[in-house]
Amino acid sequence: MPHTFRAVALAALVLVPAAARAEDVDVMISGGFKSTYGALLPAFEAASGDRVTTRPGPSMGTTPDAIPQRLARGEPDDVLIMVGSALDGLVRDGAAVPGSKVDLALSPIGMAVKAGAPVPDISTVDKLRAALLAAKSVAYSDSASGVYIENELFTRLGIAAEMKGRARMIPATPVAEIVARGEAELGFQQVAEILPVPGITFAGRLPAEVQKNTVFSAGISAKARHPEAGRALIAFMASPAAAPVMERTGLDPAKP
């Protein structure tokens, strides 16, 4: 058993009581935490005996798979793993339990190009600006990272006017898939959503001066059928043993 997985499995045994409930736990999760979650989940299920059903979707927006839309349709859910600010909104709306929110990770924005294409240097603000101005087409997500790029980043770089007509927001589909198909020269999304996509090259994170970290948090659904099993899953995802898995999948662990 690899060292990292062994450490995570041991953490699961500590966090999950020996008298496991063997519940059916429903989870709604947005893409930025999905790779980390997928790597950690087998150890939790093995230790707890719980069976976890996962429903992915964006943290916000009006696409049918978006978590707020799923909840509005009455889909079953115990645990919400999503952008922290969006989870705050669900708490205010009565869709998530007040006081149940736990910050899990910070998710930085990165850039992808099609595999085999030249990889622009974006290590400084000036080089990032130059790469954007040289690109014929730019894509970004319809979630938190894309909202930042469209509403703030281009303006901070002083190129908002120049990007009109060549930059577009991509609903529902991972941006790196658009880049891999050659439908955009540059793609921007959270690093954790870029790395799993085949057919692209990861060009790097945005420079620190213009970086925007999205906080991913977890909470309990207001209509949870198995809230205690849900809290055990959240505690496991937030445990120190999960940190190496987060880092490998493009996230930075949230500070306590």
CATH topology of the largest domain: D-Maltodextrin-Binding Protein, domain 2
β-strand percent reads: 15-25%
Q: What best-fitting shape do the alpha-carbon axes yield?
A: elongated
Q: What is the H/E string?
A: HEHEHEHEEHEHHEHEHEEHHE
Q: What is the mean pLDDT?
A: 91
Just name the CATH architecture of the largest domain. 3-Layer(aba) Sandwich
- Our count of domains comes out at 2
Q: What characterizes the major β-sheet?
A: 6 strands, mixed
Secondary structure: helix percent:
25-40%
Kindly report how far apart the N and C termini lie. Answer: 29 Å
Strand order of the largest sheet: 2-1-3-10-4-11
Structural class determined from secondary elements: alpha/beta
Q: Any idea what the radius of gyration is? A: 19 Å
Q: What's the count of strands?
A: 11
Figure out the total of helices.
Answer: 11
CATH class group of the largest domain: Alpha Beta
Low-pLDDT runs: none
Kindly report the name of the CATH homologous superfamily of the largest domain.
Periplasmic binding protein-like II
